[in-house]
């Protein structure tokens, strides 16, 4: 293109010039094609907007944003992550800014004289992001990928019009009309040096409706600053004055505020487009939301980092409050985080435009903006208290302290969970409607009590229950820090025997043991909030081998090689910290699912061979490639392979027999080789690929030991491969597994290219008939019949493979396939799902029974607002809709409106998701009015509402909501949104009914118009409202109805679908264009809203409304972790937090039975103090004589135990195993904790002592004896009764403290007496060990002393536990133990009392 290419400004950047040249070379040089490149326009709001290219083609008018980022681009619809050369950078999705520019440009062009006079409207301006770098990898998924192109597909996106295109192509007259409008609008050369005073504006950093943030450089000093331009141009005088005041007052608000955590406004300037504030600028500072995204998918801040940031933010806010300065709108968008390079983080608070500051004893106050909503970005909504949203409805302002405290709590939720507290203000209202504040256990398992309290009471919707000040918030935060920094059960010996729950120095906590190899043990660990693998030397003798492996891994950086982080020494054992392949190993997948599905096979093979290429580049060998050494990890949303276990990489080439024999090159023993080489490495990789493709190794390799000597070449049977790639893979393996190394692939890159060829050919070639090897012309979809074979359809190899796995052979079977069935198949790619979905839709349209067609309405323009008016609340609207009757004639009207608007006088609450929407027939029957009279009343009412400016304004609100939400909403959703926007002072459920009533009034008024913009559809118990301005109302309603049906299906799945699986099913439904850019969250909420019985959990799972309480308790049991004690209300609240619309949990004693039935480990203790009340559920702990409620005066309690039934054979094995466990401890002189039913405790003590010749020592008696001896030896001994009473005193009292001092003095002598025993000791009555906090101290130290001294006798600890557990507990504290589970055993009831076997269930 030359003549019609208009370069307004020469580009200063080589990458931009190259991208524009790329487009220029490929675009046709004739009408209607036109391009305007590198220009600037000033929008009607005064904002400065730069355009890279505006491209007009027959397909449309495109605003093209050029981004030249070499490397990898990933992210979502909100933010992108750019990874290049190992560095990550996060930035806002450029389409968001491009969309904003497009709307502004369209409005500007439409206001030009030529456009106003033109017969045809100017075309809609679409946006497109062009990733112009040649080597860019686009890993964007879902909505984020829409309208984002690379060099491979940008021309297709701009120009290609397929057969399904329904829009009118742009022609030469429209092209000229656009050109005239642009000329009149005054597009001009892009000024790279716009100025504010002595500052030159360089780069746009951020933008909202009322401001633009620019990076600017001082022309004399070169200092860089952030400059915020307040956009007053084109605004009404009142709005412009508000913004001018905002700028001036924000500058004044920060006057005298000097704090490292507060971003300063350094200067106030004036610009042609409005006032400007000059701020400090730190190029290393990143917005908090971007900083968290930059951690990586599924990652969250390390706990210590989260605490550090939260304390910095809170202390900066406390400082501001001390200066009477209140932010009032804290959110991640207001916080800038800087990584100081040494692992430390610092933060600054910005965006004080919504602040309030009091002066002179609060007799004078400054507020930058009167309403919070005036300048906030939408993303900040979930961090604002509900009262902040309602400020626009009241003359008074909300309490600023409470607003900031709420925001701190919501930010804390984000920092610790990695998730925002809600997707938007509407969802936040829904979460808080339960009245208890945000529950961090909804998103985080194992949260401690102090952290739960901090977030819940900081975000409590009732300000009377909310934390009252930032100083109090910091006190809560200190408790959280104490809780999170308490030492856990740190591993002090034999690290290779660690188990789940053990910790190592440096805050590394073991969560799972993966297994042990020849030289190492692998654990899943949590380190600084991240899940990693700890590969630990099995013994110090293997340390050198692991250090060598670390040196190898340091040289490797590749996405298909496990990432190495650091090396530590753990009690003399070398350990490597590696990434965790959380999806298991390739070997596990092969055993579970068989051969790898077609699409994954291509990807997995490419992963493995790309890792091999990297190894060859570095001159390294793995030496043990096999499925067991290949992990599966999610990279983005895709599953990929990673190679791990490089423990043999340092072996010499002469040692060619090391490794796994079945995967070795059998020809390495041929003369002239007998050394490990790259050919042997690639042979192992080829065998692994073979197993991936077929599910097994070749017969000659499928056995133990090195394969036998083979004469001649290997025979490859093509029949074992998928038909679509059979010939290609057979040729690949003949070459890869050839005997003569000269006939094999010369390097890994050649091997990788050859691997790709069969798959590429399968995508291009015509389909092969399954029974023949000749090409068959595919049967066009338009000619297929019910009995047509699937193999004859024009389908890709991937699609055919998918249908084969579903056992579908004919078109008749295919059209009966539910499209969501495809989502259930593992390994089916999005492209294949889409291909099959489209084919099924086309076949069903032709061959399925016809459905009645629907006709859409013509697009109707919005009705003009008849008057501006004020934004009035739901309550005020209701008074206008249904004024109280004033005369007898109004009674019928009043009764009619009461029923018509939703039975407003009904007693009690109805289901929140139900809306009463009666027809005239049912309404007349309900209130006794003739149909004709009802129709007359309705006509008069609708006529009056149509003239009411407040109803008109409400209709405009509904239209905006529909546009924002994709074009379709349910009546309940609209009611909730209107209630949030306009507010109500009525209590529930009246406020909800009134909101739904005003929504019905608005909708019915609109539907009564001659050219209505919406349609209404009744769908079961739901009412759907869809935008019909483009004639797509029926299609939108169809989509919403289908979403609802799918949500109902998902909710009934057993087990519940994971959030990802459910979302895949939702996304698999073909969506209207208006839903293309909507978030996953919106789709899920619409699906639930349109369903008849589905609900959405806090984890985004679909579940059935009214789900049984036992089921919800079972599914959400992880929410109960983190605290040793829970009240009934806390258990109920946590479960309801996960599944709010399930049946509520019962109270006691039914709840006891539910917890016991599910064996969650919690038991009811009526004596324990918790939350100011007596009684709580406690984690498993010692019962009689092991209960922390034991005292010096009385130590026995009575508890109930549930019988454990076993069969005769298993019982005999259990008894034998128990006795062997005890004898092993006796022989080794070890510690062993034993637990038994409380009622069998006395008999167990006697039987143990008699059977194993144990010396019984009561801890209570031992302690009392030593205390007596200590007191008797004192010059002034205390009164013994006073000592006993001190045990029952409050733990903070002086008497209790003195008693503990006495106890500490006698503990060493007690331990010495036990160690000096001449036979094994059975320690009983351990309740006071728990009560006095001696489990980890005295008991743990005694156990270690016994372990270190080989001359001591064994020590047994006898506990009475109500519930069978995997470990020993005293008062909720786990008893210290050694390697594995050898130091704890459960005493079988039948061993103590054989008669129980005969009693059966009578116990």
From TrEMBL:
PROSITE patterns: NERD, PROTEIN_KINASE_ATP, PROTEIN_KINASE_DOM
GO MF annotations in UniProt: ATP binding; DNA binding; DNA-directed RNA polymerase activity; protein serine/threonine kinase activity
Pfam family, one: Pkinase
UniProt keyword list: ATP-binding, Kinase, Nucleotide-binding, Transferase
InterPro entries per record: BREX_PglW, Kinase-like_dom_sf, NERD, Prot_kinase_dom, Protein_kinase_ATP_BS, RNAP_asu_C
Start and end residues of each NERD domain: 11-128
Biological process (GO), any one: DNA-templated transcription
Positions annotated to bind ATP: 535
All copies of domain Protein kinase, residue ranges: 199-479, 508-760
SUPFAM superfamilies: C-terminal domain of RNA polymerase alpha subunit, Protein kinase-like (PK-like)
Record protein name field: BREX system serine/threonine kinase PglW
Keyword match RNA-binding: no
Signal peptide extent: none
């Amino acid at each position: 293109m030359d003549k019609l290419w208009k370069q307004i400004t020469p580009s200063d950047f080589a990458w931009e010039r190259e991208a524009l040249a790329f487009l220029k070379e490929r675009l046709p040089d004739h009408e209607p094609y036109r391009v305007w490149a590198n220009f600037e326009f000033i929008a009607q709001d005064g904002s400065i907007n730069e355009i890279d290219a505006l491209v007009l083609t027959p397909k449309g008018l495109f605003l093209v944003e050029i981004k030249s980022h070499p490397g990898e681009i990933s992210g979502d619809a909100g933010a992108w992550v750019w990874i290049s050369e190992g560095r990550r950078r996060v930035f806002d999705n450029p389409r968001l800014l491009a969309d904003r520019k497009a709307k502004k440009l369209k409005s500007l062009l439409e206001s030009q004289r030529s456009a106003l006079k033109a017969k045809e409207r100017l075309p809609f301006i679409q946006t497109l992001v062009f990733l112009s770098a040649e080597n860019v990898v686009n890993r964007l998924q879902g909505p984020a990928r829409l309208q984002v192109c690379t060099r491979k597909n940008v021309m297709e996106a701009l120009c290609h019009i397929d057969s399904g295109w329904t829009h009118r192509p742009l022609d030469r007259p429209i092209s000229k009309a656009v050109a005239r409008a642009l000329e009149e609008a005054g597009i001009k050369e892009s000024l790279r040096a716009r100025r504010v005073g002595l500052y030159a504006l360089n780069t746009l950093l951020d933008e909202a409706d009322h401001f633009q943030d620019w990076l600017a450089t001082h022309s004399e000093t070169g200092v860089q600053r952030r400059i915020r331009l307040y956009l007053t141009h084109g605004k009404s005088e009142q709005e412009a004055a508000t913004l001018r005041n905002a700028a001036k007052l924000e500058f004044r608000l920060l006057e005298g505020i000097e704090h490292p955590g507060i971003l300063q406004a350094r200067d106030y300037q004036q610009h042609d487009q409005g006032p400007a504030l000059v701020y400090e600028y730190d190029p290393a500072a990143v917005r908090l939301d971007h900083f968290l995204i930059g951690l990586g998918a599924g990652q969250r801040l390390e706990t210590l980092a989260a605490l550090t940031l939260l304390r910095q933010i809170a202390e900066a806010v406390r400082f501001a409050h001390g200066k009477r300065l209140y932010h009032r709108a804290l959110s991640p968008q207001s916080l800038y985080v800087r990584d100081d390079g040494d692992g430390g983080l610092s933060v600054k608070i910005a965006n004080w435009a919504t602040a309030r500051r009091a002066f002179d004893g609060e007799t004078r106050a400054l507020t930058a903006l009167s309403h919070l909503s005036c300048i906030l970005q939408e993303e900040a909504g979930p961090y604002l208290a509900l009262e902040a949203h309602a400020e626009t409805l009241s003359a008074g302002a909300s309490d600023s302290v409470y607003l900031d405290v709420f925001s701190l709590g919501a930010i804390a939720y984000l920092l610790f969970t990695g998730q925002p507290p809600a997707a938007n203000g509407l969802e936040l209202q829904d979460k808080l409607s339960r009245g208890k504040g945000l529950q961090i256990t909804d998103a985080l398992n194992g949260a401690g009590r102090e952290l739960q309290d901090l977030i819940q009471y900081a975000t409590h919707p009732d300000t009377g229950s909310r934390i009252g000040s930032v100083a109090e918030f910091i006190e809560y935060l200190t408790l959280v820090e104490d809780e999170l920094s308490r030492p856990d059960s740190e591993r002090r010996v034999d690290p290779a025997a660690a188990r789940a729950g053990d910790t190592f120095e440096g805050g590394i906590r073991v969560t799972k043991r993966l297994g042990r190899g020849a030289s190492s043990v692998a654990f899943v660990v949590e380190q600084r909030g991240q899940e990693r693998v700890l590969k630990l030397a099995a013994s110090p003798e293997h340390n050198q081998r692991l250090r060598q492996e670390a040196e190898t891994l340091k040289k490797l950086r590749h996405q298909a090689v496990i990432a190495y982080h650091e090396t530590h020494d753990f009690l003399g054992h070398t350990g490597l910290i590696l990434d965790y392949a959380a999806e298991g190993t390739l070997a596990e997948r092969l055993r579970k699912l068989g051969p790898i599905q077609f699409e994954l096979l291509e990807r997995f093979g490419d992963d493995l061979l790309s890792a091999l290429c990297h190894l060859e580049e570095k001159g390294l060998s793995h030496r043990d490639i096999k499925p067991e050494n290949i992990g599966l990890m999610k990279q983005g949303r895709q599953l990929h392979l990673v190679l791990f276990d490089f423990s043999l990489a340092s072996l010499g080439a002469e040692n060619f027999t090391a490794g796994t024999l079945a995967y070795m090159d059998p020809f390495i023993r041929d003369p002239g080789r007998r050394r490990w080489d790259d050919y042997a490495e690639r042979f192992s990789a080829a065998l692994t690929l073979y197993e991936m493709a077929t599910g097994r190794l070749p017969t000659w390799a499928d056995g133990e030991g090195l394969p036998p000597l083979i004469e001649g070449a290997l025979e490859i049977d093509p029949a074992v491969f998928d038909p679509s790639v059979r010939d290609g893979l057979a040729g690949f393996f003949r070459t890869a597994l050839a005997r003569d190394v000269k006939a094999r692939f010369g390097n890994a890159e050649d091997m990788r290219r050859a691997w790709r060829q069969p798959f590429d050919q399968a995508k291009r070639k015509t389909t092969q008939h399954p029974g023949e090897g000749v090409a068959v012309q595919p049967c066009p979809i338009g000619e297929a019949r019910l009995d047509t074979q699937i193999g004859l359809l024009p389908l890709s190899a991937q699609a055919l493979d998918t249908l084969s796995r579903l056992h579908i052979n004919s078109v008749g079977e295919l059209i009966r396939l539910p499209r969501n069935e495809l989502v259930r198949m593992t390994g089916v790619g999005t492209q294949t799902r889409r291909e099959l979905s489209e084919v099924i839709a086309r076949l069903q349209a032709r061959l399925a029974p016809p459905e009645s067609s629907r006709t859409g309405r013509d697009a109707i323009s919005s009705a003009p607002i008849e008057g501006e008016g004020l934004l009035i609340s739901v309550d005020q609207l209701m008074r206008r809709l249904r004024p109280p009757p004033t005369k007898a004639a109004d009674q019928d009207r009043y009764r009619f409106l009461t029923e018509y608007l939703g039975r407003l006088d009904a007693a009690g609450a109805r289901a929140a998701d139900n809306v009463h929407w009666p027809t005239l027939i049912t309404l007349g029957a309900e209130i006794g009015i003739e149909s004709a009279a009802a129709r007359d009343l309705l006509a008069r009412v609708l006529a009056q509402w149509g003239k009411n400016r407040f109803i008109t304004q409400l209709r405009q609100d509904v239209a905006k909501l529909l546009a924002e939400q994709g074009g379709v909403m349910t009546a309940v959703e609209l009611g909730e949104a209107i209630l949030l926007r306009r507010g109500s002072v009525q209590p529930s459920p009246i406020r909800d009914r009134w909101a739904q009533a005003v929504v019905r009034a608005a909708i019915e008024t609109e539907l009564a118009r001659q050219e209505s913009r919406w349609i209404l559809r009744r769908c079961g118990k739901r009412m759907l409202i869809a935008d019909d301005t483009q004639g797509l109302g029926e299609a939108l309603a169809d989509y919403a109805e289908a979403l609802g049906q799918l949500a109902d299906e998902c909710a009934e799945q057993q087990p519940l679908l994971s959030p990802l699986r459910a979302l895949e099913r939702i996304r698999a439904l073909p969506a209207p264009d208006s839903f293309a850019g909507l978030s996953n969250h919106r789709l899920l909420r619409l699906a639930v809203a349109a369903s008849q019985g589905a609900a959405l959990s806090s984890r985004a799972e679909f579940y059935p409304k009214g789900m049984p309480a036992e089921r919800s308790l079972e599914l959400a049991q992880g929410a109960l972790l983190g605290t040793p004690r829970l009240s009934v209300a806390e258990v109920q609240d946590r479960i309801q937090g996960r599944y709010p619309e399930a049946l509520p949990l019962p109270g006691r004693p039914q709840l006891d039975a539910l917890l016991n039935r599910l064996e969650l480990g919690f038991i009811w203790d009526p004596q324990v103090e918790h939350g100011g009340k007596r009684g709580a559920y406690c984690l498993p702990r010692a019962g009689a004589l092991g209960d922390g409620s034991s005292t010096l005066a009385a130590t026995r309690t009575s508890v109930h135990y549930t019988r454990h039934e076993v069969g005769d054979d298993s019982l005999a094995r259990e008894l034998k195993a128990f006795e062997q466990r005890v004898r092993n401890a006796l022989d080794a002189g070890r510690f062993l904790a034993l637990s038994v039913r409380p009622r069998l405790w006395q008999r167990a003590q006697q039987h143990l002592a008699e059977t194993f010749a144990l010396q019984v020592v009561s801890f209570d008696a031992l302690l009392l004896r030593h205390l007596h001896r200590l007191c008797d030896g004192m010059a002034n001994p205390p009164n013994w009764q006073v000592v006993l009473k001190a045990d029952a005193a409050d733990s903070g009292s002086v008497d209790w403290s003195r008693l503990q001092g006495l106890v500490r003095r006698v503990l060493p002598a007690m331990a010495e007496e036990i160690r000096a025993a001449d036979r094994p000791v059975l320690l009983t009555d351990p309740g006071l060990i728990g009560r006095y906090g001696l489990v980890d101290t005295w008991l743990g130290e005694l156990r270690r002393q016994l372990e270190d001294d080989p001359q001591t006798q064994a020590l047994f600890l006898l506990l009475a536990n109500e519930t069978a557990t995997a470990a020993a507990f005293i008062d909720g504290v786990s008893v210290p133990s050694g390697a594995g589970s050898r130091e704890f055993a459960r005493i079988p009831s039948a061993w103590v009392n054989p008669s129980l076997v005969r009693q059966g269930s009578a116990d």
